[in-house]
Amino acid sequence: MDSKVSEGGLNVTLTIRLLMHGKEVGSIIGKKGETVKKMREESGARINISEGNCPERIVTITGPTDAIFKAFAMIAYKFEEDITNSMSNSTATSKPPVTLRLVVPASQCGSLIGKGGSKIKEIRESTGAQVQVAGDMLPNSTERAVTISGTPDAIIQCVKQICVVMLESPPKGATIPYRPKPASTPVIFAGGQAYTIQGQYAIPHPDQLTKLHQLAMQQTPFTPLGQTTPAFPGEKLPLHSSEEAQNLMGQSSGLDASPPASTHELTIPNDADV
Predict the structure, then answer these.
(1) What is the mean pLDDT of each successive set of 10 residues along the chain, which is 274 residues long?
(2) How many other CB atoms are found less than 10 A from the CB of residue 175?
(3) b/e map of 215-236 (b: 16 or more CB within 10 Å)?
(4) What Å distances lie between residue 130 and 60, 97, 98, 123, 227, CA to CA?
(5) Environment class of 176 (CB within 10 Å of its CB; exposed 0-12, middle 13-18, buried 19+)
(6) pTM (2 decimals)?
(7) How far apart are CA 254 and CA 267, in angstroms?
(8) Which of 10, 215, 240, 251, CA to CA, is 20 to 30 A from 146?
(9) What is the CA radius of gyration of the chain?
(10) Contact present, 192 and 250 (Cβ < 8 Å)
């Protein structure tokens, strides 16, 4: 978090980073970007969202403290609205809390936790929100995730207190920010069809992989396979010959140009130029 204090010491500009899943980001962006546009206009904060081909996205909120808190309130209430809507189609009786994940430089997490956990305990008790600081740093960064959950009002109060701690204890040394990696989709083959795994489901893969398949076939012939190929979790699909393997894969195959390994579970980046 960057901070800039004016002469009066009141006008503080903050930058807060949030880590969100794709579905959460979709909710914040809204149809044709209407929701995020409204949040920007009504809060006065700058809200930027990282590139879209990652399962995780970074939402950066920058502005004076009052604008930051307004933006946070709007996000928290939007997430609560989403939870309420999802419960209308559910048999669940208890309402799950709203959860936000902040990304905080690891050098500031000690101040947030406090001696013997005193500060984080104080924040939990005074706001009613649950606050957890991750023990490990996020991959390839010097930042940690701080998870806040509770009612929207509890979350807003919690964020205010965390901001105070962050301002009182600036980061030490250089911070390497966390950047989510682009998603890679595993591709599996069964019954002459290529599938990608999305959540718990295998989705038929579009034929765009045909080009990759043709390229791979030009580069290297299939070697006979005596191994098993994973089809779905817990199910083994035996392949006994290169001809059988090619028949199984059909025209929708996603192989790179290197010689095939014995197991044909392959990874194709979402942004592969095919």
Answers:
(1) 42 90 93 96 96 88 94 97 87 87 96 96 97 95 97 96 93 93 68 60 57 53 50 47 48 46 52 52
(2) 17
(3) ebeeeeebeebeeebbbeeeee
(4) 22, 10, 10, 9, 49
(5) middle
(6) 0.65
(7) 8
(8) 10
(9) 24
(10) yes
